[in-house]
Amino acid sequence: MATITLNIPADKIQLIIDSFCNTQGYQEEIEGEGGEMIPNPETKAQFSKRMVIKYVKGIVLMEERRLYQLELDKFTSTELNIT
């Protein structure tokens, strides 16, 4: 498995984490099993990493769909010869 590494200056890491959390919906507290609000067990850094992974997966899925659609269009326009 390949690894992607991001080199972020130490003085910018908190800004980046906070930016992901603020724009992607991180919640400091979440609803517990009993309906009470509890501290979120997922840290802001963990959440940010999960959002980066989700973004990359989403880009790959969009590209796979695009390529599939190109093949489907090619098939339907040449193989069926419907006029």
3D structure, described in words:
- By secondary structure, the protein is mostly helical.
- It has helices at residues 13-24, 44-78; strands spanning 29-31, 37-39.
- The chain has a two-stranded antiparallel ribbon.
- The radius of gyration is 21 Å and the shape is elongated.
- The termini are far apart.
Task: Sum up the structure in keywords.
mainly alpha; elongated; 83 residues; 2 helices
- Give the mean pLDDT: 91
The portion of residues assigned to helices is: 55-70%
Distance between the termini: 47 Å
Total DSSP E strands: 2
What are the low-pLDDT stretches, counting only 5+ consecutive residues below 50? none
Anisotropy-based shape: elongated
- Biggest β-sheet description: 2 strands, antiparallel
